[in-house]
Each structure stands twice: as structure tokens, then as C-alpha cells.
Write a structure and sequence with these properties.
The chain is α+β, with helices and mostly antiparallel strands and about 110 residues long. It has four helices and four strands. Helix 2 packs across helix 3. The relative contact order is 0.16.
């Protein structure tokens, strides 16, 4: 999907890698994932890979609202829901302004 989408985007290169195989990269403006993990876990993995104004595109299914609720316990972000053109339960989450919730950020310092 993303390799096909790359054709319509200028100045971007799609790289397919597994998270466990990631070398240290310079921060990226866009991180994507499909069928990888729950949203709170995805955010934990993705946030360190993003530039300060970076965006995440995560493909999610029927439980997307449950995952957003769970993520809101630890994270704050701007969320845009893009309906899937392929599956009626599918949603692409476009997430930006991603940051730890204030009580979570404080807890991580201790």
C-alpha cells in the first residue's frame, strides 16, 4: 500500500523495515504501521522516531475507538480519522502533535 502511495508523494522515500531490525535513524517526518500492535504500544515505539512536527499514519480496525481511549491514558495528540476505502471497519489514523500526557511525562522522570 505505502509503496504504491509513494508514487503520488514528492520528496518522500518509503522504507519497509521491521521495528526489531531498526538501526538508529535520523528522525522522520512520517511513521506508518499496519497490523503491528495496539495504539499505545505503537505510539511508544513511533514517537522517538518522529521529527518534532512529525505525523503517524496507522491503519486500524473495528476496535479503533477502544484503542484511542486506551492511548488517551498515556498520550495526547491530534487525531484525524480517515475511513478505509477497502474495508468497512478500517480506519487510517493520522496522528500529530504527539506527546506524553502530563502525568505520564512526570512519572517517566522519576
Amino acid at each position: 500500500f505505502f509503496f504504491q502511495a509513494e508514487d503520488g508523494i514528492r520528496d518522500y522515500k518509503v522504507t519497509g523495515v521491521q521495528t526489531c531490525a531498526l538501526p538508529i535513524f535520523a528522525p522522520a517526518p512520517l511513521v506508518t504501521a499496519r497490523a503491528l500492535a495496539s495504539l499505545p504500544q505503537l505510539l511508544t515505539w513511533a514517537r522517538p522516531l518522529l521529527t518534532p512536527n512529525g505525523t503517524c499514519l496507522f491503519l486500524k480496525g473495528a476496535r479503533v475507538e477502544d484503542e484511542l481511549t486506551a492511548a488517551a491514558r498515556e498520550w495526547q495528540m491530534s487525531v484525524v480519522r480517515i475511513p478505509s476505502r477497502i474495508h468497512p471497519d478500517g480506519v487510517i489514523l493520522q496522528l500529530s502533535d504527539i506527546r506524553r500526557a502530563p502525568d505520564q511525562a512526570q512519572r517517566r522522570l522519576c
